[in-house]
Amino acid sequence: MDFEFKDKYDINDLISLIALLRAPQGCPWDREQTHTSIKNNFIEETYEVIEAINQNSTSGLREELGDVLLQIALHCEMESEKGNFDFNDVCDELCKKLIVRHPHVFGDKVANNTKEALDSWDSVKESLKGTKTASSKMDSIPIELPALMRAQKVQSKAAKVGFDWDNQDGAFSKLNEEINELKVALSHNSQAEIEDEFGDVLFSCVNVSRFIGVDSEEALKASTDKFITRFKIVEKLADEKGIDMKNSSIDELDDLWDKAKEILKADNSAINGGN
């Protein structure tokens, strides 16, 4: 094996290591991978970076960033094998992009605050990509993004050209309207109509989130985590009381749910009081 073991490795070592792993004498699994076969790995590793950030874990962040870098190196090696581009070409293009899109740093433009810096970035991006209309900017938003995140970005693009409510009252009214339309769809018992109207309800919820200054993706994530935490307590209470959850009434389970909320509220009060 033509590889030098070291006490400290750098990016060049990583690139060489990936090439070795995909070589005939390397790893069978690595050799078989394609852009498509590992695309979900990329998504998973990215979310693990976010988890490390949310947990404020320095060691976790270092490890997970390495896993993301592994994905990048693998994709670059696949293209290098075809003679298309390599890791250095990616770095070169990125550096050139950053220089061009920061005329307020490397050119004669001025940006005195974050808003002006973002406006400068967007202006250059629009001129390069030809995304001058609001709809073309919406099209440039990746369809693979989480649905709530994509909806919020699309709505923000519309808002920038004035297609928006004057205040949150309009957004709430639209939400109520969509909920009523969903109820009508349910009465028609048409699955296609129901799905369509339910999507409109979710889209309207995202609209409300913008006006009240809430990130819809993060808010739903937090609520899901909260549900899991409470549900664990419900299961524990049911086990202690000898209650079979599958055969219990919703009223009995709802009573356990309320008790779980009380327990968590008491725990949080004790923690906050301790601080």
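(the above was protein one; protein two follows)
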Amino acid sequence: MVNDIIEEMKVDMLKSVNSMKQALIKVRTGRASIGIMDGVMVDYYGTPTPMNQLATLAVPEPRLITIQPWDKGALSGIEKAIMKSELGLTPTNDGKIIRVPIPPLNEERRRELVKMVKKMAEDFRIEIRNHRRGANSILKDLEKDKEINKDDLKSSQDKVQEITDGYIKQIDDVLSEKEKEIMEV
């Protein structure tokens, strides 16, 4: 029973870490990444469609994203969608392929992005701690209902804290990696 509670908590914490990784992919750095295009929706014959369902995206150079639509009719729609997005990117279209140069970030913008990702990381740390609180609450209820004794409660809570510390460390590692990526010139 205790092991089930701990395993469920681990699954929830892992989901939180993976959610953070997904959220950070969308944060633009000075380096090209097709992940920044994930939120861009293209008006394709009147239907909002994710760009990756209309074209092949590639990163042939560190500061360039290429977008090759499968349907040439989607070229202008993709170009307009990138211009409308809040990414601050300017695509060029040669009739077959769209090239999106990724300009380097200025120092002020880098610092803003670092602040933003630190705030995101703190939100995910809070999420992890909430999972810990939930597991500890269930364990205390089990002890109150005499399903486990005080020693089992204490050892279980220690294990929960140890697991929590591990997931918090994972979040900190992901954060420091993203900070390095943002600050590199």
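Reviewer note on protein two: The mean pLDDT is 89.
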